[in-house]
Amino acid sequence: MSLDQQKVQQAERVYEDFEPPSDWAHDESSDTLILMLPGFKREELKVQIASTRILRLSGEREMGDKKWRQFRKEFAIPDESDTSGVSAKFESGILYINLPKHIKTQPPPTIQHPPKSTNPPPPPPPPPAPTPVAPPKKEKEKSEATTSRAQGGVSEAKIDKRSLTLELLSRQTQEYKNAVSGLVEEVKKQKKLANFIILIFLVLVFGFYVKNAMNSSLGRTKIEEL
């Protein structure tokens, strides 16, 4: 059939406009347009997407006796739909146009850091100073009394030793005087030269003895006092 014959046949056709019922089904991942097209076949339908995000659907079929039924529908594509993934399915007189939604990437959670303080942290407080524990009053007085008695005892001991030494020296001196007096009386009585010589010798020996005794006693006294 030539092109002219086709034009003649189309000019002889009588078209009846048909308004198919439609509806939308929405979910989280896509939007689906549903058209009821009973009696139509797959090859009698056209699906087009315009650059202005318009979905155009059309179709025509022969009814007989040069009568044709046709429809033309336009739908605005939702903003969240991805036109690159549009798909169509025709099944049991129903046309399904599926428009997937853009996958929204969730931004990573923002980690909020606490503001940095410019002031240095305060130094830790110093440990509390230990409280001095005073000794009990009674024990302190007792200790002082003991020390005082000990010091007094030492002083008394030194005084007693010194008195004893002086008493011994006094006794020795008195004995020396008595001995000398006795010898003198004896010499006077006997008036003998030999006895006088012996007397002098004895006096010298006794004086030497007394001197040594006194030096020894005084040396011991000084050592004990130190």
From TrEMBL:
Descriptive protein name: Putative HSP20-like chaperone
Chief site of localization: membrane
Compartments it resides in: Cell membrane
Entry-linked CDD domains: ACD_sHsps-like
Pro residues: compositionally biased ranges: 106-135
Keywords, in A-Z order: Cell membrane, Membrane, Plant defense, Transmembrane, Transmembrane helix
Organism name: Lupinus albus (White lupine)
GO annotation terms (biological process): cellular response to heat; defense response
PANTHER family referenced in this protein's UniProt entry, alphabetically: HEAT SHOCK PROTEIN 26, OS05G0592000 PROTEIN
Region (Disordered): 1-27, 103-157
Keyword Transmembrane helix: yes
Family: Belongs to the small heat shock protein (HSP20) family.
Membrane topology per record: Single-pass membrane protein
PROSITE patterns in the record: SHSP
GO CC list: plasma membrane
Any one Pfam family match given in the protein's UniProt record, by short name: HSP20
